[in-house]
């Protein structure tokens, strides 16, 4: 069963023509079940099974500036939790962002875009620790691993595939996984792994700490408190390390 995600974007709109242009980019798109465009709040909310990066690209085709503000699902009207991991440790060229949202009390939706991988299959796992003091080697074992070939371990996720450019766009659903249990742990990418559930330090090519992130309607930022830059220009500021601005990664 696939769980639609609801994604909230700040979209720079100033008139009804802007609204119509945004609506035109979303109408009739396969995978989008509904959307709402709010001119007064300059906000667009999309319910779909598409990657958040794909929706952002669609919105940008309207000619407007777009920033992702919230990611989640609504289960009985409540946000059950969301998290994000910036993959910025490991091999220097492997970078990206992975997002997680609690779709139901026992099910997570996981999506991401990773660049710099070797073409082919790799495996994405959650590991015990968020310790990256020694790069990916200090992240511990696969989370929940009880024996060497434990395919049912909570941290065993799924295969991701990188194309010829080294990019992997993926979306997966994982049962029996709670975001509250994995905050502070790590996401690790294992190079060249398909059906293997073992873990070798030499296979770890990318990793990042899992941190809590804004759910739906929880991020009201318009101006950055640290430097006074608005959300539309934040990404072009020198030295910005916000998740939206990871080199080569589409958020």
UniProtKB/TrEMBL annotation:
In the C-terminal section; belongs to the Cu-Zn superoxide dismutase family. The lineage of its organism: Eukaryota, Metazoa, Spiralia, Lophotrochozoa, Mollusca. GO terms for biological process: superoxide metabolic process. Its cofactor is Cu(2+). Pfam families: HMA (PF00403), Sod_Cu (PF00080). InterPro entries: HMA_dom, HMA_dom_sf, SOD-like_Cu/Zn_dom_sf, SOD_Cu/Zn_/chaperone, SOD_Cu_Zn_dom. Residues 4-67 form the HMA domain. PANTHER family: SUPEROXIDE DISMUTASE CU-ZN -RELATED (PTHR10003). One of its GO terms (molecular function) is copper ion binding. This is Superoxide dismutase copper chaperone.
